[in-house]
Amino acid sequence: MSDTAEQGVDQAEQGERGAEPATDEERDLARRERRLSANRNAERALARLGFLGTLRERLAFVQEAAEPYDLDETSDMYGGGIVETLEKRVAELLGKEAAAFFPTGTMAQQVAVRCWAGRTGNPTVALHPLAHPEVHERDAFSQVSGLRPVHVTSEPRQPTADEVRDFPEPFGTLMLELPLRDAGFVLPSWEELSAVVEAAHERDAVVHFDGARLWESATHFGRPLDEIADLADSVYVSFYKSLDALGGAALAGPKTLIDEAKTWRHRYGGTIFQQFPTALTALAGLDRELPRLPAYVAHARVVAEALREGFAAAGVPWMRVHPEQPHTNEFQVWLPYDLDTVTEAAIRQAEETKTSLFSNYWDAKGPGLAVTEVYVRAAALEWTAEDVKAAVADFVIRLKEETAARQEATTARNRR
C-alpha cells in the first residue's frame, strides 16, 4: 500500500488518534474538526460561511455592520429600537402589513401555524415530509404546539395543485418550503406555485411560506420578493442562511396575525432583552448580500455545468448535479462512492492544495452512494468554469487514491 493511501485509511478509520481504536462518535468528531480546519485554512473555496469564523471575525463583522447606523440611539429592549427598524424593513420588502423578529425560524413558524390553527379552527398542517419541521425540529409541531402534521406527497419534489386539491382530509394550513432544501433546494415554477396556492385557498386553508431561503428564490421565479410573498397569507424568512447575519428570523403577514404572533413569541420565550447585534447584521445582510444573490444564482449554474464536465472528463462513471440547472445558489452533488472515501478525498484536497471544492459534509444515501450540498457565494465568483474543472480533476485523483487504499486494506484484512 502506498504511503498516501495508507495515511488516508488511517485518518478515516482512526480519526488521527494513532493506533488507538476510536468509537464511531470520536471518529466523526475528529473528521468534522479536520474538515472545518481544512476549509478555514483553504485559500480558495466556493463559499465562505461567516458563522464558521472566529469570535474575533464575528465581532469585527458586527462592528462593520453597525457603521451605517446611529450608534448613539438608545439600544433595543425587548424588541424596540433597531429591532423595530428591521421588522419594518422586512415588511416593506415582502409587501406585508407587518413583521415580527424572532430569535429562531423554528419558533417563528411554530407560532405562525399555531396562530393560523386558532383562526381556522383546524390544527392540521399539510406539509412535505422533507420539510424542515418534519426533519430537523424533533416533532416540535405536535410535541409543543398541539399541531397535527400530514403529508401531501412523499415524492422528493414540491407538491402539485392536484395533490393539494384532492387530499383526502381537511387541513387548516398548507406550509410550503421554498426552496425545499432536503429535496435538493428545489422550487416549483411560478405557474405551479400559483396553482398550488389557489388549490389550498379553494379548500379554505391558509398558505404559509417557509422562506428560510426565499431571498435567493426570486431569480428562479422571475418575480420581485413582494409579488412572491403576496401569494401567501404569511411568510417566514431567515437572516443567517443567505444573508450571513448572526442569526434570527422574521414572520411577516397581516398586522392582526403579527400582533398575535408577538404575544406567542413572548410566551415561547422569544422576546429577548437585547438583540441589537443580530438585528444590525441582518440589516447589513439586506443591504449587502441581498442584491448579490442573483449573481450567486447565475454563477451556481456555471459551477454546476463545470462540475458535470469535469467529472466526465476525469472518467467518473456516473455523477449527478441536482437539480440539473440549480434553482438557487445551492444544489446537491451525488457521487458513486462510499461516504468515507468522498469525505477523506474532500478533506485531503483542502489540506494539501488549499483549494476547497466540497466544503460541506457528505451523507450516505445507499451502498456506494454519497451526496453533499454545494453553496455558491461571493468567494465562488472568483472561480471560472476552468478553475472548477481543474479542482474536480484534482479531487478525482484523491478519490482514486482513497478507493485503491481501501481496497488494499480490505484485501489485507481478509488475508489475516
Please tell me how large the radius of gyration is.
Answer: 23 Å
Gap from first CA to last CA: 16 Å
What percentage of amino acids are in beta strands?
5-15%
Are there runs of 5+ residues with pLDDT below 50, and where?
Answer: 1-19
Which structural class fits the helix and strand makeup? alpha/beta
- Name the helicity range: 40-55%
Order of strands, widest sheet = 2-8-7-6-5-3-4
Biggest sheet features: 7 strands, mixed
The tally of beta strands, per DSSP, is: 13
Run of helices and strands: HHEHHEHEHHEHEHEHHEEHHHEEHEEEH
* Count of helix runs: 16
Question: What general outline do the C-alpha atoms trace?
Answer: globular
What would the average pLDDT be, to the nearest integer?
Answer: 93
Keywords, separated by commas or semicolons:
416 residues; alpha/beta; 7-stranded mixed sheet; 16 helices; 49% helix; globular
Q: What can you tell me about this protein's structure?
A:
It is a single chain. Helices cover 49% and strands 14% of the residues. With 416 residues, the protein is an alpha/beta fold. It is globular. The two termini are 16 Å apart.
List the helices and strands and how they pair.
Layout: H1 3-14, H2 24-41, E1 44-45, H3 55-66, H4 82-94, E2 98-102, H5 105-120, E3 124-127, H6 132-135, H7 140-145, E4 148-151, H8 161-165, E5 173-177, H9 190-202, E6 206-211, H10 218-221, H11 225-230, E7 234-238, E8 249-253, H12 255-267, H13 276-288, H14 293-313, E9 320-322, E10 330-335, H15 339-353, E11 355-356, E12 362-366, E13 369-375, H16 385-415
Parallel strand pairs: 1-11, 3-4, 3-5, 5-6, 6-7
Antiparallel strand pairs: 2-8, 7-8, 9-10, 10-13, 12-13
